[in-house]
Amino acid sequence: MNAPPLTGLGWTSAANVAPAGWTAITTTVEGVPANFGKGFAQKSGYYLCFTSAVNSANPAGDIISDVVILSDKSPLPSGYVYVKGFLDPKTSVSKKKMLCVKLIPLGAADLAVLEILVTSKSKSLPNYLRIGEMSGFAVWCKKDHVLKPKPLPKPRKINLEMKHLSLEPDNTDAPPERPPPPFGPKRQATLKRHESIHESSNVYGISAMDGVPFALHPKFENSVNSSTNASSFFKDFHIKSLTDIEKEYDYSFVVERTAAARLPPTIS
Hints:
single chain; 268 residues; alpha+beta; four-stranded mixed β-sheet; three-stranded antiparallel β-sheet; 16% helix; rod-shaped
């Protein structure tokens, strides 16, 4: 829907007589003067006019959803009103056929009248709906679907009980609290000394040995219990260098490489 929906139809004695915001249809589609009523015992006729503005006659901004032409003996349908007249005292609208419109709020409308045209009775207009005939003219309208704005979701109101059940903290701006250290002060001091390697505030930075209790091998327990001098106990320990460890536990993976290099057996 490109054009705005119409908000009013009326009759005017001349193009300059219609109020501000109203447009008079002074000629038909073929270019003939669209003067209704002239020649039927009237010296001056009247013109059909329309508006898409919100004015004092339609302060709510209701739109036209339908237009009908009724005879003088037809009752006015429910929800319809006769079009307004902006005429001088010497001009009167014929009562034989009367133009009526249905005004509804924009939010309740599915279809709206966007355009009104006047032609001769023999003219055909594709994509337009023929309303009827009046004073030797045919009146047409064009309808289209109304584009309604999407309603915005209302913010949810959380009561105090639901707020206590929420997993989110009350103060989201406050910095997160550090988890309590899972070990004693000695282990915490060790983590602080090596925080460049393992960040103490990150539980994923703690090594795999954290929490493993320290215990001596049973073969050393008798030596510790019987010895009163700590230095005599540690003299039996041999500290190996990195080269000694690599030499002692070196493994060339010859068997694995040989097995991987074997070709799979072929099926003859």
